Amino acid sequence: MKRVLLLFYICAIAVVSFAQEDSKVRGDHFLIQGTLTRINFPGKTAEVAPYTQIVIYQDDDLFATFFADESGHYSFYLPISKTYSLHFGGSAYINKKIMIDATHLSKERKPRELMLDVELFRELEGVEFPMMAEYWQIFKYNPESDALINDNVYSNRKKMELEKLAKKLRKIKPKEKPVNKS
After folding, report:
1. From its phi and psi, is residue 107 left (phi > 0), alpha (psi between -120 and 50) or beta?
2. Which residues in the chain show pLDDT less than 70?
3. 54 in the Ramachandran plot: left (φ > 0), alpha (ψ -120 to 50) or beta?
């Protein structure tokens, strides 16, 4: 019985490995990978965010849920020709939502990759983060560069909203600063 289970486990790993390798060759998938870090908001210090949850919606339907590894790294393939909403953080952090419009990526035998490092932070008692209710970043296909490109104007506006809140919180006297929920 143990041998059958071991054989089944080895076959399952081989199938997953083959599927990921095949995705690179076919060109009908693209790779997203990066590292998740935790910042001590409103400060600037950062550390690895291990085992952080990532939820993926494909065209508004739940597609996959998994966790980053012990070093905060993650890596996954997504099919092209779809729109994705990635939610980083789970219940441990304020979620950062990132939209990726891969509807116009062409099916080529060209490997496509999106490097996406994400900084997360925990809720603060008595502090609201309205800028986090919307997408943090939006990526769309740019035919000139033949790549998924971040909408920098949109992202910079979101970062400025968050930085404005951080400056406001830093001005509060230390004894009045909100405390991180743990």
Report:
1. beta
2. 1-27, 109, 173-182
3. beta
